[in-house]
Amino acid sequence: MRGMTTALRICPLCEATCGLTLTIDGGRVTGARGDRDDVFSKGFICPKGASFAELDNDPDRLTRPLIRRNGALTEATWEEAFAAVAERLGAVLAEHGGTAVGVYLGNPNAHTIAGGLYTPLVVKALGTRQVYSASTLDQMPKHVALGYMFGSPVAFTVPDLDRTDYLVVIGANPLVSNGSLATAADFPGKLRALRKRGGRLVVIDPARTRTAEFADRHLAPRPGTDAALLASVVNVLFDEDLVDLNGLAGHVDGVDEVRALTADFTPDTVAAHCEVPADDIRTLAREIAAAPSAAVYGRIGTSTVEFGTLGSWLVDVVNILTGNLDRPGGAMFPLSPIASAPRPPKPGRGFRTGRWHSRVSGYPEALSELPAAAFAEEIDTPGDGQIKAVITIAGNPVLSAPDGDRLDKALDGVEFMLSIDPYLNETTRHADVILPPPPPSRSAHFDIALNSLAVRNNARYSPPALPLTGRPDEAEILSRLALILYGLGHDGDPMLVDDQVIAMTLAKEVADPHSPVTGRSVDELTAMLPQAPGYERRLDMMLRLGPYGDAFGAKPDGLTLAKLKAAPHGIDLGPLRPRLGEVLRTPSGRIELAPHQLTADVARLRDALGRRPDGFVLIGRRHLRSNNSWMHNLPALSGGSNRCTLRINPDDAADLGLTDTAVVKGPGGELLAPVEITPEMRRGVVSLPHGWGHDRGGTGQRVAADEPGVNVNQLNDGTHLDPLSGTAVLNGIPVDIAPAG
Ligand SMILES: Nc1nc2c(c(=O)[nH]1)N[C@H]1C(S)=C(S)[C@@H](COP(=O)(O)OP(=O)(O)OC[C@H]3O[C@@H](n4cnc5c(=O)[nH]c(N)nc54)[C@H](O)[C@@H]3O)O[C@H]1N2
Ligand SMILES: Nc1nc2c(c(=O)[nH]1)N[C@H]1C(S)=C(S)[C@@H](COP(=O)(O)OP(=O)(O)OC[C@H]3O[C@@H](n4cnc5c(=O)[nH]c(N)nc54)[C@H](O)[C@@H]3O)O[C@H]1N2
Ligand code: SF4
Ligand SMILES: [Mo]
């Protein structure tokens, strides 16, 4: 026990952001438990968080950069690696410009300070429109729906879990995923508390998931039909005179249009399409309307489908029409401590997608991104504007995006590829240089992105639990990359980057009449920031300018980074409060319930009502002890129920004579998968998890390679997208199933 200490660290492994207490011994993390005093998570922890030590110490984690020499990736010093980036990426920039560089940003960027504060600088420095991310494999439909309805694509509505009386979870399995786009540590405990206080939980999911099993009621629609189902709920609300805008009355445009648009989505019409009894749809609508408060919450199963944007839109249409938007117990807007301090309501410029289009397939841009499903074709299709170099930051698109085999080949053909990633995996094995960020114990943590999704406002900061010696943290890696891209060489001072951001931000603030620091001097404010790493200076600035901030001394009780550091278990900032006026940025200054960009797609939905393809439909699933593609390398999380199997209903299996291995054929290819027969699956629906297929050579994740699984995304050819958001259809894919052999 001698020398053993503890350190607090927010878990970066999923959106729940639990506070962990790490035990530290001999200069390394040896264990992790939930921090009972954490203001937000109150001791909750899951098996992944509990494996923090194993993840942190994984011997397969890269500790030094790798550079490709004579075809092989070999270890190099940091100086050599940055010099190689400057030289080889510089050559591409000199010949083709930054616009020929394709960038892919993966999911962990949402979980690190570096991803939140420095990745955008890299993208900006390149000036490229070839930007791809996991968002178009995930939540882009929600952004697009929010953008059109509220004028801001990041005006996230989250269910007020602690106070709601009636929660509808559609296309999410938070008892396994621990919640997404609704940052709530201990989602299971919150669902228990909901039921204990007499509230009800309804789950809409084709699979009888853990969350569905726990619910008061489970509806199991045919995959891909959520938008039609929700349109029908809206139809009932109008038909039975249950619409009640409540406090929103007078702030919503387009109610009559929505009534007209959904007029033919009667429960009797959609019941056969959704395979949900018409009466269940009526009951659902009546109960949502009757509940003292209710929140509809949709996630991956509503998002990564054929009508993802329509479904995401209709989720909030139901919240709005039942008067549940922006009120306690309903769907509310969190207020992050680093959001700008509220400004007076004002009309915005409006949101739109399609300001430019992808070169090969002409897909519209959304939030300055192009569809991840189009990444490969933009690399391997010759012509003007072709991607010549690639940068991946915290992503593994070879497994995460459709048709990884094509991307695999395409990446081999680029002139230069840089990956910033701790692992040599299916994607990074193609890189010419890999720059590995340090393990999480050696970096600071603040939830740049996820605080704006938290179901209770809070602020928490973890300094590095262990010192970092002899290697840069990820903020510095990305700063140095930005300097290289700006032509400032490979050995520029990374602090320059932060100084520049601070100078620009403060100049804007002091010139803004509504800023809490309006009219003050930039020099005065800059001098008040701590002598500290650049990210701490920036965080302090953001907190002080933010809604709870001290306004650089003007509000002495307000928040600063120093105060946050003095509260290691975090600062609770209270329950969510109504704030629609602060977030609305539509040109009309009102909620646009029926934006024409969205309603134009309803015709396509109507056409689909008549379609009921026979054959099987494939959906995805997540496992409690897994995290997308990158946590299959930890022995503690491997094996047991965490397996890449094809789940199928017992009657379907019997009909097909399936016992052990199935051939699964999809639009993009076929694969062999072990069969798991379970009544959790309804008839006609099968599931495979994603992130598997660790059998490609040249990777460095030994445990993962031992039980590789298969890559479900190879069944997908990448041509099926939600047209409004460019999000890949990952759920509801037609497949053929047959016994192997
Ligand atoms: N079929 C199907 N496909 C899916 C999904 C699905 O439901 N079904 N889900 C989609 C969703 S929601 C998502 S978010 C995507 C995820 O897609 P990606 O983000 O492309 O994939 P991940 O598996 O999360 O890969 C994360 C990468 O980040 C690295 N990494 C981990 N920590 C850090 C860090 O601190 N810094 C850096 N620089 N790198 C780090 C890991 O080594 C790994 O290479 O997958 C999508 N793909
Ligand atoms: N343990 C663990 N936790 C994770 C992750 C992980 O890989 N493992 N990944 C993280 C990431 S990146 C994300 S984005 C979140 C995702 O968080 P969730 O969305 O909660 O996670 P999923 O398990 O993908 O849940 C999607 C559900 O949608 C259902 N579904 C599929 N098709 C349809 C449909 O057409 N309609 C309806 N109504 N339902 C459908 C599936 O059966 C599944 O239960 O989880 C995060 N947390
Ligand atoms: S629920 Fe998420 S944040 Fe909490 S311990 Fe598990 S992985 Fe970490
Ligand atoms: Mo995700």
Automatic annotation (TrEMBL):
All residue ranges annotated as the 4Fe-4S Mo/W bis-MGD-type domain in the record: 4-60
Single annotated GO MF: 4 iron, 4 sulfur cluster binding
Alphabetized UniProt keyword annotations: 4Fe-4S, Iron, Iron-sulfur, Metal-binding, Oxidoreductase
SMART domains found in the cross-reference section: Molybdop_Fe4S4
GO cellular component entries: membrane
Pfam family, one: Molybdopterin
Domain of life: Bacteria
Keyword hit for Coiled coil: no
Protein name: Dehydrogenase
Organism listed in the record: Mycolicibacterium celeriflavum (Mycobacterium celeriflavum)
